[in-house]
Design a protein that fits this description.
Blueprint: H1 14-41, H2 46-54, H3 73-84, H4 88-108, H5 111-123, E1 128-131, E2 147-151, E3 154-165, E4 177-184, E5 187-194, E6 200-205, E7 217-228, E8 232-233, H6 239-275, E9 277-278, E10 281-282, H7 287-313, H8 322-347, H9 358-367, H10 375-389
Parallel strand pairs: 1-4
Antiparallel strand pairs: 2-3, 3-7, 4-5, 5-8, 6-7, 9-10
Helix pairs in contact: 1-3, 3-6, 4-5, 4-6, 6-7, 6-8, 6-9, 7-8, 8-9, 8-10
Length: 395
């Protein structure tokens, strides 16, 4: 039984506390110094990314036999919260690799697929991602047009995928390996598609994004792409279940990124409100400023408790908590954008330029309300699930 007197929701074990301290040092010394330049240049810092592999964090939820850290959903939340406080764009690349590819493959792949690919992905030798969205398909997953047809010992995949994080890791270099969803008949299957497969081509690198510029986003093209049958994950038609289960940890870690953005925004606005003088006194003494700071803090604390409580109860192998994985992302992402906006307002003109960080955080925060499921999708799912939960309740 948990000793509630000593229980820490945010660092439930000493291992979690050590992870947070290690990440705090890494972020301060290595992530923060490069963040502004990579955002400005729209550049993914591959060398820094591979440092995460050296720290066993690219496979944070994968057992050490495959090169991972063997930790849980709380650890994944800690990592995304800490990194995004300095560089949400870099953190998004980390999420696409560690959660959407590595965790997904570990949970759903075969022993052979795990043994062959995960050590390279966990070390950072290979950089991966997940391909679900298409030019005309986002939330409506069953509407995807990409198809996979079996011919003997290969599948031929044809179609386009869009908005793929880590799709290109530089101006002209594809990522190394992707988990690609495609239609096999009227059901969805998933495949491991590796750089160099015949018919697998890069499309355009997407430039000029509002935010998350330190992660690369690309279109990927499959023209009768030849994929060995051995690269099918599970059985044909299994992958809707794979997708739904992995969406839970994706949405939870996107919510964790929101916590990092909000925490940093609060730190910046508090420091500025202490230092900036108006009418002979610090602006923290003015009610309008106090409202922005106090409400931001309370909103962040409430969302943080919800995120960590959900993480504590999430079974990565079984899933089964769509209600709260949608709930935390709905609450935390809107909170982060509002808190970053509050910080910009407190800083005034200084908040609108890059020197004080919050304009970058504000730009990055918007994507979290779209990627991994839109706010509208979360509202639909939550309402549907609650209608089942309370259908027997008589008022």
């Amino acid at each position: 039984m948990t000793d509630l007197a000593s229980f820490d929701l945010y660092n439930p074990t000493e291992e979690h506390g050590m992870l947070r301290r290690m990440l705090n040092d890494f972020v301060k010394n290595e992530v923060e110094p490069q963040a502004e330049a990579c955002d400005r240049e729209e550049r993914f810092n591959v060398e820094l990314f591979r440092r995460l592999g050296e720290m066993d964090l690219l496979g944070i939820t994968v057992p050490d036999e495959f090169g991972g850290a063997g930790m849980d959903a709380v650890a994944a939340v800690i990592a995304h919260e800490e990194i995004s406080a300095a560089d949400p764009g870099f953190c998004l690349a980390y999420l696409a690799h560690s959660m959407l590819f590595v965790n997904n493959l570990y949970q759903n792949g075969s022993d052979e697929q795990r043994a062959r690919i995960l050590p390279k992905a966990c070390s950072g030798e290979w950089i991966g991602g997940m391909c679900m969205s298409e030019p005309a398909v986002g939330t409506d997953v069953m509407g995807m047009a990409t198809t996979a047809t079996r011919e003997g010992e290969i599948y031929r995949i044809s179609g386009q995928k869009m908005w793929i994080t880590n799709g290109m890791i530089s101006e002209d270099t594809l990522g190394d390996v992707f988990l690609v969803y495609a239609k096999t008949g009227d059901r969805i299957s998933s495949f491991l598609v590796e750089k160099g497969f015949k018919g697998f081509e890069k499309g355009q690198k997407i430039r000029g994004k509002c935010g998350m510029r330190a992660s690369t986003t690309a279109e990927l093209v499959f023209e009768d792409c030849e994929v060995p049958v051995a690269n099918l994950i599970g059985a044909e038609g299994d992958s809707m279940l794979h997708m739904m289960k992995n969406l839970e940890i994706e949405r939870l870690t996107l919510a964790a990124m929101s916590l990092g953005i909000a925490m940093r925004s609060i730190q910046v606005m508090c420091r500025y409100a202490n230092e900036r003088q108006a009418f002979g006194r610090p602006i923290r003494n003015f009610g309008q400023i106090q409202r922005y700071i106090a409400r931001s803090y309370a909103s962040w604390k409430a969302a943080r408790a919800y995120v960590y409580d959900t993480a504590r109860h999430l079974d990565l192998a079984k899933g089964g908590n769509r209600l709260d994985s949608d709930g935390v992302k709905l609450v935390a992402t809107t909170m982060a954008k509002e808190v970053a906006d509050n910080a910009m307002q407190v800083l005034g003109g200084y908040g609108y330029v890059g020197e004080y960080v919050v304009e970058r955080l504000w730009r990055d925060a918007k994507l979290l309300e779209i990627g991994g499921g839109t706010l509208e999708a979360h509202e639909k799912n939550i309402t549907k699930d609650l209608s089942k939960t309370f259908e027997s309740v008589v008022s």
